[in-house]
Design goal:
Blueprint (H helix, E strand, L loop, with lengths): L7 E3 L3 H10 L8 E3 L8 H9 L10 H10 L25 H10 L13 H7 L10 E5 L11 E4 H11 L6 H9 L13 E7 L2 H4 L14 H17 L22 E4 L10 H4 L8 E7 L3 E2 L14 H9 L9 E4 L1 H9 L5 H8 L43 E3 L8 E4 L1 E8 L5
Parallel strand pairs: 1-2, 5-6, 9-10
Antiparallel strand pairs: 3-4, 5-7, 7-12, 8-11, 9-11
Helix pairs in contact: 5-6, 6-7, 6-9, 7-9
């Protein structure tokens, strides 16, 4: 259109936006930086801090810079273009263990904890956990899970094995990690909302690899749960370009759950209901991985609705807590077996029955408040079918999923805004 344009961006995204412009071959893109955030401010505050304010990067008046960027000719540096060629770097590094640990830290190849150095021998041993070829493409991932703003990075089975070694995994964990990586779901989102991810594992593999589904099921109290969760984050960092503060990670306050995420092995033995995977259409004992995302989970005792008394109406308490959750991710309930049994005995024979009870009522549109139709169809004309009502569900199914895990020693449970995304088979990665 041959019209000049200047993007206006808050200065907190300076590193991210300049890197994006450079990657797109526009290192000299003129961008106007302003003080953020801008939402939730009054008109007077916006005029004072933004319109009549200074650029936080240069310290110069915003409006004067805008005029200059629209009117002054581009400099030689601003006219430069070029393609950024990216690669994985050298295949091997040789140095002392101490210097290699520092190398990993300095290059942000870790979660800032010491890693198991991925020697050739350890990586080859890890690859014994799968029959798939080391150079087979295992998946692709990006910080936005779309590949749009940040392009997808592709990775191989061997790449996953390297990060599994770094996290301290055992070879028998590889099918779970490959299944998770192949979904493309990043364990660390770029969002400034500080999201967290969760995986739920069903099937006989839970006992096979030693996943904890009893006391402390969501905590770092089993080697498999802890290292699988950590490996998922390392895969996101090193194979998906995630978690780089200022560019591919912008979580305002952060989320400590990003370290090992939430890894749940459902307690199928003690649960009174069918496993979550069976409710998603898989067979009993089939090894299945289900992915969730959201804000995280918190003990139900945190909510005022979780009153204490001699007689506990757990279904109503849980429904009251769910009613306090936002609509973005819905809510998920992580019930200990005793709580699940209480709920079943209260009349909910299946988890689906309970999920229906928890689901919010569809929006009501009283006829008296509805706007009249814009026009009446002419005689003989076919009226358009009404648009379908939106479903009150998250992606992939119910926005009120129920998971049963944990010990049987007391009546505790957790809830939080977590949305179910998808379920995949694990055994195809053996």
């Amino acid at each position: 259109m041959n019209l000049p344009a200047v993007p206006i961006v808050i200065s907190e995204f300076y590193e991210q936006e300049t890197e994006k412009a450079r990657n797109e071959g526009l290192p000299g893109l003129r961008t106007q930086w302003i003080r953020g955030p801008v939402w939730a401010k009054t008109r007077e505050e916006l005029r004072r801090d933004v319109i009549n304010g200074n650029n936080p990067i240069t310290g110069k008046p915003v409006m004067q810079e805008l005029v200059d960027k629209f009117t002054k000719p581009l400099t030689a540096d601003e006219k430069k273009t070029g393609e950024i060629i990216r690669g994985k770097g050298p295949a091997t590094f040789t140095d002392t263990p101490e210097k290699l640990q520092k190398l990993f830290l300095d290059n942000r190849w870790t979660d800032f904890l010491p890693v198991v150095l991925p020697t050739e021998a350890l990586v080859n041993n890890m690859l014994k956990g799968t029959s798939h070829a080391p150079d087979e493409q295992a998946g692709k991932m990006s910080p936005t899970n779309t590949g749009n703003y940040f392009e997808y990075w592709t990775f191989t089975v061997k790449d996953v094995a390297v990060n599994a070694v770094m996290a301290g995994c055992k070879p028998e964990y590889m099918p779970v990690l490959l299944a998770a990586a192949a979904t493309g779901k990043e364990a660390i989102s770029v969002s400034d909302n500080s999201f967290v991810d969760m995986m739920v594992i069903n099937g006989s593999i839970r006992d096979e690899i030693g996943l904890n589904s009893g006391v402390g099921a969501m905590g770092p109290y089993a080697h498999a749960n802890t290292t699988i969760g950590r490996a998922w984050s390392l895969i996101a960092i090193n194979l998906g370009n995630c978690g780089k503060v200022g560019t591919t990670y912008m979580g305002v306050v952060g989320n400590p759950m990003n370290l090992i995420n939430i890894v749940i092995a459902e307690n199928e033995k003690e649960s009174p209901w069918e496993p979550f995977s069976v409710r998603k259409g898989f067979k009993k004992n089939e090894n299945v991985l289900s992915i969730f995302e959201g804000w995280g989970v918190l003990s139900a005792a945190n909510w005022r609705a979780a009153s204490w008394g001699k007689v506990m109406d757990y279904p109503k308490i849980i429904k009251d807590i769910f009613a306090q959750q936002g609509s973005l991710f819905g809510a998920a309930a992580i019930l200990s077996p005793p709580i699940a049994i209480f709920v079943k005995n209260a009349g909910y024979a299946t988890a689906q029955d309970f999920e229906k009870y928890l689901a919010p009522a569809p929006p009501q549109f009283p006829m008296a408040k509805m706007a009249p139709p814009a026009a009446t169809p002419e005689a003989g004309a076919q009226a358009k079918a009404p648009a379908p009502k939106p479903k009150m569900q998250g992606r992939g199914g119910s926005s009120m999923p129920i998971i049963v895990t944990g010990g049987t020693n007391n009546n505790y449970y957790s809830l939080g805004g977590m949305r179910y995304l998808q379920s995949v088979q694990i055994d195809k990665w053996r």
